[in-house]
Amino acid sequence: MHATVRIYAGANDLADALVEREDEVKQIISEIEGFKAYYLVRTSDGATSISVYDNEAGAEQSNRVAAAWVAENLPDLSIAAPQISAGEVAISF
User: Which residue ranges in the chain fall short of pLDDT 70?
Assistant: First the structure.
């Protein structure tokens, strides 16, 4: 399994916007081949998302899809590009 963590610093309104459009977010992320899980965490400085896929290709595609969706659907939010970390899941339970 592979996971991608996207940290959106200074984007306090992002979590609210994603929750309001949860069905759309679920559709675009879960349609990527190998989808396992998605989590959105509200943080004191914005939001962090975690996407889990069967393989690296799915995790990388989720980054492209997420960036395109945010740009297209949330243009009024001032969101800087997230810090992205990705890799193989070492422990899962």
Answer: none
